[in-house]
């Protein structure tokens, strides 16, 4: 589906660094930031367990197409090296550099793309040689990644073995890396919530159990569906809505045997349902008036263990449970809800920190119609809103959540192959973000356009202005 670029010539085409900048005579420059967008690695066992190999390849390719969006997670960096599984349109790179005032961006693309980006880097002689060279030019390199995976840690070890001084400012130590998969899983966060629920009464998840195996899971789910008129089934660590089944009243047969049989048939379509633990929980009807029904709070745990609150937001989630984007602003949540999701996030973060996790994480919630706020899951990595937050700090200011209202969509549907980046940029020019007005549309990806998706962020001085600008954008797209 996606063409893998094997040519080695374009890899350093965006290099603009002044080698003398910040360098003392006869000495090395202090530090070079290296970013690795290893999205597929974060959920590799899940991807590997797809029953449909064509779907598996599609998932890997789609994740690769999300890589240029992650550039905005680095919006505050003036210079850095970006390792991506797929080449990026040079026009988009220049647009990004201009918007975020980046003076030096080097992009490295391994010749082979398997989905395991850090493995691909290790097996690519040219990219590894360049990283080792950076280690000679700088006193150290600071490597950050979308997720701290075993493959990422292996790459770090290999570079250290090559006498490269490596710092991992956004990652836990190897001995504590288990926290990423454990707390980033549906079963792990459920265990943490159940244990700490005794300490804080409002720390709770929807009523549910952790199961294993298709047959037992189908029986539990069928019983819950018949009794409650709805049920949610989640694999332990899915991705972007995949691995989640949501059933409302009328979706399944009313009789147990028939209901169980239909659930079994659905679960047998993908091998991951048999391979990993499964969470079966009550269906919670969200209140769309509270952050769209799905509040969220994101945090960062520093290397000294301090838990830092970044922002709260409302998530844009469709009826299938698929995440689309975020809405960030001071008034996006009622004050009582904002306070609650922040406090609970701190409590969860303190446990993460105690167990050695370092880096970004968020907590997803469901705001129920009855007034309860339930923890849904935690993403123990860079999240779907991180790039929005980092872009906001760079483009509007560190207190942008008080100065503006922000809406985003990571994958807004548009006609496939209708727009090149150049054509889209020309069309959007009247409403593109301006540093003077601090308002407008930021285009976040060129790679996704081929698949029929637009990734964007809209900044407005208030919610009405942000929605007006977003409406104009959709109008220009003919939507």
Automatic annotation (TrEMBL):
Keywords assigned: ATP-binding, Nucleotide-binding
InterPro entries: ATP-grasp
Domain ATP-grasp per the UniProt entry, residue ranges: 195-409
GO molecular function list: ATP binding; metal ion binding
Superkingdom of origin: Bacteria
SUPFAM superfamilies, per database record: Glutathione synthetase ATP-binding domain-like (SSF56059)
The protein's name: ATP-grasp domain-containing protein
Organism: Candidatus Collierbacteria bacterium GW2011_GWC2_44_18
